[in-house]
Amino acid sequence: MSEVIKTATRDAYGKALVELGNTDAKILVLDADLAAATKTGMFKKEHPEKFIDCGIAEGNMMGVAAGLASAGYTVFASSFAMFAAGRAFEQVRNSIGYTNLNVKIGATHAGISVGEDGASHQCCEDIGLMRTIPNMVILNPADDVEARLCVLAAAKHNGPVYMRFGRLAVPRVFGENYKFEIGKGAVLKEGTDVTIIATGLMVNEALMAYETLKAEGISARVVNMATIKPIDREIVIESAKKTGVIVTAEEHNIIGGLGSAVAEVVCETVPVPVIRVGVEDTFGKSGPAVQLLHEFGLDAANIVAKCKQAVKLKK
Amino acid sequence: MNTSLKKELEIFATKERLLLLEGIFNAKAGHPGGSLSIAELMSYLYNVEMKIDAKNPKWEDRDRFVLSKGHAAPALYATLALKGFFPTEDMKTLRKADSYLQGHPSMKCVPGVDMSTGSLGQGVSAAVGMALAAKLDNKDFRVYTILGDGEIEEGQVWEAAMFANAKKLDNLVVIVDNNNLQIDGTVEEVNSPYPIPEKFTAFGFNTIEIDGNDFDEIEKAFEEAKNTKGRPTAIVAKTVKGKGVSYMENQVNWHGAAPNEELYNQAVAELTAKLNELEGV
Question: Does the beta-carbon distance from B156 to A65 stay under 8 Å?
């Protein structure tokens, strides 16, 4: 078996920006004094004339991004998820969402896997915040392959996009031929007893849960949902019909994120139970990222447990 | 300023006041005080200062205007209508459900509006972004933004000011409509932003203090701004809130209220008399 490649999606973000900078003259990258951490520093090094540091002022950065976009630029504005979606929420809503301008928000350090920095920096609310803004597209890639494709797709998309990246190096899930399209989920494993719909680093955990469940005689369907908004309604409805129960998995508060989005679709179409794996409406804490993920139930073991509960609900 | 130009600008400002009040009266809502205070500034910007083309509102090389104090939308709309961006008759539809004239400026549906505003403090950042775009593209368009004196209590304004100076945006002119009143009272009572010129100077701006209802002083300030290199300019314009309508002048209760029919007719009579006097009728 070949060695598993591990890369943080924020690294893939930085590399993809460099790639875009090589070909697209109207790309600008903005950061708020976090270029080394968000990995826009890679872009700064290669394309210094297209990089603008806005300093520690995220609200202003989002407004500046809107002004630049109104003059014809495609602007990538980067910070940690906490500050991009949290602090600058209303600037994103009014100056970028309402205006439908070409600003792509590159939000890194999302979720519990920030690790040692602790709760103040572990943003588990960003999907919920961004999901309520009309015009906003939300992408949450599972690995570096998908992260790169998300960045390229965001650049081509007309309008605002929120991209969610992680700090922690995560295993590569997808091969070279993987195709990504905004708004489309992907069935990674077929199954009949339960569907696991996962996003971000939970996709790899879902695939591990699939193997465990299989060994125990439970047939799980695994869906990767990299686009949280617009949610792929068809694949959710199809999964509900096919397996009769759904478990969602995300590194985000169980309120407002993927689980909520899936439940909304299911409630209005094919009402089946939806069990949400995620951060259970609590704040994070300091610690090694992987240890915290287990502690907060963001792992294959918890997905397996929830799938077993889910299957029982059908009987 | 020569007298014929001044008369022309005064006539425009008076027509602008009549038109913005017509909009607010018909809407039965809106913000007359802070719209009336900036009529002279808008008249000068759109008749003398700015490179614009009403037939091509999205002309790439146009000068940009951002009404950061978006609640003064009636003043912006009246100006744009008088300049031919859309019919003056449409002012009667202001704030109505089937109108494109939104309560606060929207760039998505109002011709000539360069940035959607209304949430205070945000417009100035967008204006800074536009000015930066001009620099990056080696274009010579200039960017103008009007802020309220209450608005500058928002921290984002100072984030934007710091950034504008750091990037040496000498194509940016920030105008503060210093009418001294905000919703809850005088700006001093609420949360004093004073001294305003010193603050902008400390943030690296070339700062000019003027009477914002006086065309000679407005002209001098914008000329000085154009000749200022390497840093942005802030024009702190002392104005009279409600200017031109006797019962609204310096009255905080006219910040966000529409006049009833009797008071509207009085305002129209006062402004029409002023217009007739200017036009020598």
Answer: no
Cβ–Cβ < 8 Å for A28, A67: no
Looking at residue A4, its pLDDT comes to: 87
Give B200's DSSP letter: H
Dihedral angle sign, alpha carbons of residues B108, B110, B115, B121 = negative
With beta carbons under 8 A apart, name residues in chain B contacting A64: 125-126, 128-129, 132, 160, 163
| CB atoms B129 and A67 under 8 Å | yes
Rounded to whole angstroms, how far apart are CA atoms B84 and B52? 11
The span from the CA of B25 to the CA of A126, in Å, is 42
- Is the sign of the CA dihedral A219, A221, A222, A228 positive or negative? negative
Domain of A80 in residue numbering reads as 6-171
Contact list in B for residue A72 (CB cut-off 8 A) is 60, 133
ipTM comes to: 0.96
pTM of the model: 0.96
**What is the homologous superfamily of the domain B3-279 according to CATH?**
Thiamin diphosphate (ThDP)-binding fold, Pyr/PP domains (3.40.50.970)
Grouping H, G, I as helix, E, B as strand and the rest as coil, residue B98 is coil
pLDDT tens digits, one per residue of B93-130 = 999 999 999 999 999 999 999 999 999 999 999 999 99
Q: Is A58 a catalytic residue?
A: yes
In the numeric block, the tokens 């001098």 are attached to B220
List, in sequence order, every beta strand (DSSP E) within B38-169: 64-67, 143-148
Any idea what DSSP says for residue A251?
A: E
pLDDT, mean of residues A154-170: 98
Please indicate whether, in this complex, the C-beta atoms of A57 and B133 are within 8 angstroms of each other.
Answer: no
